[in-house]
Amino acid sequence: MSRQSTREGLEPVLDPADERLTSRAVLGGTIGNVLEFYDFGTYSFFAIQIGQAFFPATDSFASLMLSLATFGAGFVTRPIGAIVLGSYSDRAGRRPAMTASFAMMSAAVLLLAITPSYETIGLAAPSLVVFARLLQGFALGGEVGPTTAYLMEAAPADARGLAVSFQPASQQIAATAGALVGEILSLSMTSEALNAYGWRIALLLGAATLPFGLWLRSVLPETLHRPETHVLVTQPGGQAHSNRRIMSLGFVILTSCTITTYVTGYMTTYALNTLHVSAPLAFGTTLISNAVGIVAALLGGLLADRAGRRRIMIWPQITALLMTYPVFLWIAESRSAFALLGGLGALTLIGTIPYSAFYVSMAEGLPRNIRGGAFATIYPFAIAIFGGTAQPIVTWLIHLTGSALVPAWYMLFASAAGLFAMLMMPETAPLNFTPNHKRNVVTPRRLP
Prior knowledge:
By secondary structure, the protein is mainly alpha-helical. It contains 18 helices and six strands.
């Protein structure tokens, strides 16, 4: 065991000669995350069709709002799942917490996929859908914190950024898979068939992978009980003060991230309902954006390992802030495939990079004995308050104002708040930086 200097203090890290987790273990955690977010996100992509199946109303706007409100219901139980499963991961281990989360998600997805429509069983249909969403939210609330802690603890110190970047990248992979399924179904099915049962096919495709995911999670090696000294931080006010500061800033940054993510994920519904483009183009917009997001998330983690956490958070965030309004203005005025695919793709590329650096910075800044629970707790509160309301608020504001630029203004507000918090985050990378910003790797030395 050795320790390396950081700008904040000293943090113990594993030597290359110590026992390491295999790449299969990291892949197992990531794949489980992909499967869970695919099932959770598919609801968002098919919000219109699900609204028609379970929430019939006198007009399409009311039906869509009921569907989106039910989507938001899944965010209500996220904090509960985060507290329960996150603290469980800090006591019993990352693997049992991740396995339990995945098992509950499996049950919720199957229930949502097979529930008959309102026309068949009446009020029981929306009741079952709401219950499934609440269970999904509980399960997903306990997913992010333990998985992020697991990925960081499984990685060597000089590759933590890349390892942890698989957390946001896996969410983008899941979103891309969902958009790809939507694109294929929209091209191969009639509108009537897509509305009637196409969305069920998308959910069942995700459900087909659930047994493999459960097995993969159950055989992961554990990281919690490996020998490791607590993180030492030398900020004024002590460790407790530092933890509270990092968690408060993390909440703001996660709020910014979730608003950006869910507004971007809303682009399929936005393109169909507001811009009135074809279904293939609408699904293609989300598909391209999410595919670019995968590359950007991994790039952000890789850059964070090379140049430090703060710089890779701050500068791309400033660029994304300056790009947002012009991109949405171009999309709203032209409503062309080039604007939707190219403009939104470029914005996603730049805007995703900062959050990979943040994920690893947050995990590094917290001691291991609270890492899973603390990260898990602040994440769903940010998601529940701002993610669960993002799509209904944007839909309502577009309906109220008639402006197609509402998503841009909402994202600008979120990005500015996130940038302010990023500027206050400490540097946690196990590197030293000279005044001219060159990277100097610190030579490990033995503990006494």
